[in-house]
Amino acid sequence: MNPQASTSPLSYDVMIIGAGPAGMAAAHRAARHQLNVLLLDEQPEVGGQIYRSINSTDPQREAILGPDYRHGHALAAQVAEHVAAGRLTYWPNTAVWQVDTDKTLHVLRDNRPVTVQAQAIIVASGAMERPFPVPGWTLPGVMTAGAGQILLKSASLVPSEPVVLAGCGPLLYLLAVQYLRAGVKIRAILDTTAGTDWKLAWRHGRGLLKGWRYAHKGLSMLREIKNAEVPFYRGIEDLRLEGTDALERVRFSADGRQHSLDAKLCLLHQGVVPNTQITWSLRAEHEWDTDQLCWVPTLTEWCELSVPGIYVAGDGASIGGALVAALQGDLAALGVLRQLNPTGHAGLWQEAATLRAEIASHLAIRPFLNRQYRPRDAFRIPEDDVLVCRCEEVTAGSIREQVALGCTGPNQTKSFSRCGMGPCQGRMCGLTVTEVIAQASGQSPQDVGYYRIRPPIKALTLGQLAQIDP
pTM for the full model? Predict the structure, then answer.
C-alpha cells in the first residue's frame, strides 16, 4: 500500500465532470455563487471536443476552424479567472473511472488514484460519434470525422492524401469546409441522406424560422463546398470500403449507378449521440429517443437525474450543440444551488425560466435536423457479415443467431459472445447491438435495453488499483 494514497477523500460542494462548453459554463455559474467547485477533465486543457485546444491554438488554425470555435475563448477566460482567484479548482489530465450514487468520484489524476466527494455532481461528458457499421469500416485508413477534427484542433494535422468524406450531418460539412481552408484535397463527399423532404421542411417551418441562423450557417457551408467544386454524391446507398491490408477503394451506388473511388483515407460520420457511460453506470433511468435514435438520460427540469444530487448538462443529456450545452451548464448549476440552499437565492427561478426559454429557442430547429439527417436503417443496422463489435470481432449475423436462440438483450449477447466486453466497453457497438436485437426480435429498442455498465468506466492498471486506500 502506498502511504501517500492513504488520505481522507477531498470534499467539494459540487464536482463537474468535463470541461467542454457545458462544464465550463456550470463551473463559472457555481463559482460566481461562491460554491466550492472542482472542475475536472481528461484533456490537458479546457475546451472539450468543440473548443479543443482553445487556449493554445494559433491564428492560422483559428481561421481554419471558423467563428463558432472562437466562442470558446470567453468561457475559457472565465474559468481561468476563477482559477487564478482561487474560486475554482481545476484538474486537467484526470479520468473518472467510477461514480457512486453517494456523490463519490474515483479518478485517475496524473495516473494516480484519487477519491473525491461532493454534495452534488454535474456530468458534462458530452457526445460521441454514432457507430457507422458498414463493410470495411475496421480497415486501416478508415476513421471518423471526429477523429479527423481532433487531429486538426489539437495538432494541426491534416491528411496528405485526398480524402473521402462519407455520411450525413452538419459535422461532415463543417469538416469539409475546414479541410478546404487548410488546403486538403477532398476526393469526394458521399452524402447518405435521402435528400430534403420539402413537406417535412414545411411542417417544421416555424422551427426553421426560429433557427434561421443555423440554417443560414449550413447553407453557407454547402455553398463553400460547391464553390470549391468538390465532387458531391447524394442519396448514397450500399457503401463499401474495400482493401486487402488497408483501404484501397470506396464503392457505393448513387442515382441508380455503381461508383468506385480509389482512396487511401475515408472519414465516416452519421451524427453524434450522448455519451451515457457514466449515467448508465449509476443505474439512472434512460429512454430511447425515437427522433435522435439513441439513449438519453431521464432528467428533471433542473437537469437532475433519477439519482438525486447528480445532474447532466450538454450533449450528454441530448444533442443540442455548443451554445445549448453552455446554457444547460448554467441551468444545472442553478439546480445545484437550489439543492444546497432552496430558499437562499432570490431570483433563481426567474433565471432558470429565462435559461429554459433561451434553450428552447436554440432547439427549435432540432426536430427538422433530426429528420433531415436521420441515419438510414441500412447504415445503423448492418447485414450479417458486417462486424458490429470491433473489439471482440462479433458480427451482426452472430447477434441475430443469438436472438434466434432466445437472447432478449445486450447483456445476454455479452455473455454469449463477449460483444461489448472489449476496451471500448460497448461505446462503439452498444447502439447497434440494441437496434439489431430490436429488429431481429420484433421488440422496441426501449424494451431491448442497453448494456449494464460497470466500473471501471475507464481502464486502470492493477498497480493503480493497489494504491487505493480501502
Answer: 0.94
